Amino acid sequence: QVQLIESGGGLVQAGGSLRLSCAASGRIFGNYARAWFRQAPGKEREFVAAISWNGGSTDYAHSVKGRFTISRDNAKNTVYLQMNSLKPEDTAVYYCAAGPKVDGQYDYWGQGTQVTVSS
Protein backbone atom coordinates (compact mmCIF):
# COMPACT_ATOMS: atom_id res chain seq x y z
CA GLN A 1 0.00 0.00 0.00
CA VAL A 2 1.46 3.35 -1.08
CA GLN A 3 1.54 5.93 1.69
CA LEU A 4 2.96 9.43 2.05
CA ILE A 5 3.23 10.54 5.66
CA GLU A 6 3.70 14.22 6.48
CA SER A 7 5.19 15.44 9.73
CA GLY A 8 6.62 18.61 11.24
CA GLY A 9 3.53 20.79 11.34
CA GLY A 10 2.61 22.80 14.39
CA LEU A 11 1.98 26.23 15.86
CA VAL A 12 4.54 28.99 15.39
CA GLN A 13 4.64 32.76 15.73
CA ALA A 14 4.83 35.00 12.68
CA GLY A 15 8.41 35.26 11.51
CA GLY A 16 9.26 31.80 12.76
CA SER A 17 10.26 28.66 10.91
CA LEU A 18 9.06 25.10 10.45
CA ARG A 19 10.43 22.16 8.51
CA LEU A 20 7.93 19.72 7.06
CA SER A 21 8.89 16.19 6.09
CA CYS A 22 7.08 13.66 3.92
CA ALA A 23 8.27 10.07 3.96
CA ALA A 24 7.07 7.43 1.51
CA SER A 25 6.21 3.92 2.59
CA GLY A 26 5.15 0.86 0.64
CA ARG A 27 6.81 1.96 -2.63
CA ILE A 28 10.01 3.53 -3.91
CA PHE A 29 9.57 7.11 -5.11
CA GLY A 30 13.13 7.88 -6.19
CA ASN A 31 12.09 8.57 -9.80
CA TYR A 32 8.99 10.57 -8.91
CA ALA A 33 8.54 14.31 -8.80
CA ARG A 34 7.46 15.54 -5.40
CA ALA A 35 5.35 18.52 -4.43
CA TRP A 36 3.67 20.35 -1.59
CA PHE A 37 0.18 21.80 -1.69
CA ARG A 38 -1.84 23.54 0.99
CA GLN A 39 -5.45 24.28 1.78
CA ALA A 40 -6.75 26.89 4.20
CA PRO A 41 -10.31 26.88 5.58
CA GLY A 42 -12.75 28.13 2.97
CA LYS A 43 -10.05 28.20 0.29
CA GLU A 44 -9.17 26.05 -2.70
CA ARG A 45 -6.18 23.77 -2.47
CA GLU A 46 -3.17 25.64 -3.87
CA PHE A 47 0.23 24.69 -5.18
CA VAL A 48 3.18 25.55 -2.95
CA ALA A 49 6.36 23.95 -4.31
CA ALA A 50 7.60 21.08 -6.47
CA ILE A 51 10.88 19.30 -7.14
CA SER A 52 11.92 16.98 -9.97
CA TRP A 53 12.94 13.37 -9.36
CA ASN A 54 16.66 14.16 -9.21
CA GLY A 55 16.27 17.54 -7.51
CA GLY A 56 17.50 19.40 -10.60
CA SER A 57 14.40 21.54 -11.03
CA THR A 58 12.22 23.31 -8.50
CA ASP A 59 9.15 25.48 -8.75
CA TYR A 60 7.48 27.70 -6.16
CA ALA A 61 4.28 29.61 -5.79
CA HIS A 62 4.87 33.35 -5.93
CA SER A 63 3.53 33.74 -2.39
CA VAL A 64 6.28 31.56 -0.89
CA LYS A 65 9.22 32.23 -3.20
CA GLY A 66 12.25 33.37 -1.23
CA ARG A 67 10.81 32.06 2.04
CA PHE A 68 10.25 28.33 1.43
CA THR A 69 12.72 25.76 0.13
CA ILE A 70 11.82 22.30 -1.15
CA SER A 71 14.42 19.54 -1.10
CA ARG A 72 14.55 15.76 -1.22
CA ASP A 73 16.60 12.83 -0.02
CA ASN A 74 15.96 9.95 -2.40
CA ALA A 75 17.85 7.48 -0.22
CA LYS A 76 15.18 8.09 2.42
CA ASN A 77 12.28 8.53 -0.04
CA THR A 78 11.64 11.79 1.77
CA VAL A 79 10.84 15.32 0.63
CA TYR A 80 11.19 18.38 2.85
CA LEU A 81 9.74 21.86 2.95
CA GLN A 82 11.76 24.38 4.92
CA MET A 83 9.48 27.30 5.74
CA ASN A 84 11.06 30.53 6.96
CA SER A 85 9.62 33.97 7.70
CA LEU A 86 6.20 32.44 8.21
CA LYS A 87 3.14 34.65 7.93
CA PRO A 88 -0.38 34.16 9.30
CA GLU A 89 -1.60 33.68 5.72
CA ASP A 90 0.59 30.56 5.53
CA THR A 91 -1.81 28.88 7.96
CA ALA A 92 -3.21 25.80 6.22
CA VAL A 93 -3.16 22.04 6.04
CA TYR A 94 -0.10 21.10 4.01
CA TYR A 95 -0.23 18.05 1.74
CA CYS A 96 2.62 16.08 0.25
CA ALA A 97 2.21 14.62 -3.26
CA ALA A 98 4.14 12.44 -5.70
CA GLY A 99 3.84 11.93 -9.46
CA PRO A 100 5.82 10.84 -12.51
CA LYS A 101 6.49 14.40 -13.78
CA VAL A 102 7.11 17.69 -12.03
CA ASP A 103 4.70 19.48 -14.38
CA GLY A 104 2.18 16.66 -14.55
CA GLN A 105 -0.49 15.14 -12.38
CA TYR A 106 0.24 13.93 -8.90
CA ASP A 107 -1.01 10.41 -8.26
CA TYR A 108 -0.20 9.96 -4.57
CA TRP A 109 -1.14 12.18 -1.66
CA GLY A 110 -0.45 12.32 2.03
CA GLN A 111 -2.98 12.88 4.78
CA GLY A 112 -1.88 16.44 5.50
CA THR A 113 -0.26 18.22 8.42
CA GLN A 114 -1.57 21.38 10.07
CA VAL A 115 0.55 24.52 10.07
CA THR A 116 -0.74 27.42 12.16
CA VAL A 117 1.04 30.78 12.25
CA SER A 118 -0.06 33.21 14.94
CA SER A 119 0.19 36.98 14.56
> What is the percentage of strand-forming residues?
over 45%
Judging from the principal axes of the Cα atoms, what is the shape? globular
> Helix share of residues?
under 10%
Order of helices and strands: EEEEEEEEEEE
| Helix vs. strand class | mainly beta
Q: Overall mean pLDDT score?
A: 93
Distance between the ends:
40 Å
- Tally of individual helices: 0
C-alpha Rg, in Å?
A: 13 Å
> Mind summarizing the main beta sheet?
7 strands, mixed
Total strands: the figure is: 11
**Poorly predicted regions:** none
Task: Explain this structure.
The protein starts with a strand and ends with a strand. The protein is 0% helix and 51% strand. It has no helices and 11 strands. It is an all-beta fold and 119 residues long. The radius of gyration is 13 Å and the shape is globular. The mean pLDDT is 93. Strands 2, 4, 5, 6, 9, 10 and 11 form a 7-stranded mixed β-sheet that branches. The chain has a 4-stranded antiparallel β-sheet with strand order 1-3-8-7, with no helix packed on it. A hairpin with an 8-residue loop joins strand 9 and strand 10 (108-109).
In short:
By secondary structure, the protein is mostly beta strands. The protein is 0% helix and 51% strand.
Key features?
119 residues; mainly beta; 4-stranded antiparallel β-sheet; globular
Helices, strands, pairings?
Blueprint: E1 3-7, E2 10-13, E3 18-25, E4 33-39, E5 46-51, E6 58-60, E7 68-73, E8 78-83, E9 92-99, E10 108-109, E11 113-118
Parallel strand pairs: 2-11
Antiparallel strand pairs: 1-3, 3-8, 4-5, 4-9, 5-6, 7-8, 9-10, 9-11
